[in-house]
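Our consortium's second objective concerns turning raw sequence data into structural hypotheses that experimental partners can test. To show how far this objective has progressed, the report includes one record in full. It was chosen at random from the queue rather than selected for favorable results. The single chain below, 314 residues long, was entered without modification.
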Amino acid sequence: MDTALAFKKKAEVVREVETSADGSRAINKFRVSDVIMMTIIAILSATCVFPFIHVLAKSISGNSAVIAKKVYFLPVDLTFDAYKSIFEDGSLVRSMGYSVLVTAVFTLLGMIVCTCAAYPLSKKRLKGRAFFTFILMVPMYFSAGIIPSYLLMKDLHLLDNPLVLILPLIYSSYNMLIMKNFFMSTIPDSLEESAFLDGASNFQVLFKIVLPLSKPIIATLSLFYAVGRWNSYADNMYFIQKDSLKMVQYRLYQMVASATESQTTTLSEASAVTSTPEVLQAASIMFITIPIICIYPFVQKYFVKGTMVGAVKG
């Protein structure tokens, strides 16, 4: 009887291990720790989602309701006048298209530069690898500052030039380090050695073997580059004066700054379309956030894999 009971318990343990090997074991009962963890996760999720819902509700609510602070998570006096104002004005739409183009070119060139730096540095056969790694990591800790950077861009004739928003920042020491560690920990040397024995060159190995196996890190770093460029406006503020070259985030910054000084927000000087500052700002924020929201679901699975680089060994 004792033997049968012990065998039954052992079978239950084995069955539990088999079902939990892939992390898909169902929870049979809730423990206090489970409730605490789920509560913490729910609170953290709410801090991310609720502000977004609040801004969305304000963007489609009436001006009087927003001014009276009656809008929280549901729209009051539903209206799309703010979005209509954005499209009728056209300046923010043009800035959006220009920002998408700059972000796409910046991300493409950034990934090319990052890959060309990370792949050689991940190989032990590169002579002077430690020295080159040190040199390329210096910008991660030291920078010249705003004034020397401005004088440099002026001497290079990059002021009021779209290239000033692309070229200075396409190299990222942090992204290069992440990609380098990915190549070293994920791509087996045996794959490259077998390719070299078959007569493949370094470029053939990179494009036909390494990059196809590096989709997670490519998607992750591409998202880092794209979001970083999309949300940045400081260099646009320092180096760009022409209205036609201002990115959409900088125009939003100008809109918020002008609304702080006055009680009316105008999309452009030539436009007669006006709205209350809070409603128009909320609609502009939603309008600017849409591209990132549309892109993220397609790279989410690669993003999760990429962020786990180096977390699991063996």
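The partners drew two points from this record. Strands lie at 265-266, 274-275. Confidence is low (pLDDT under 50) at residues 17-24, 269-274, 310-314. Both points have been shared with the crystallography group to help prioritize constructs.
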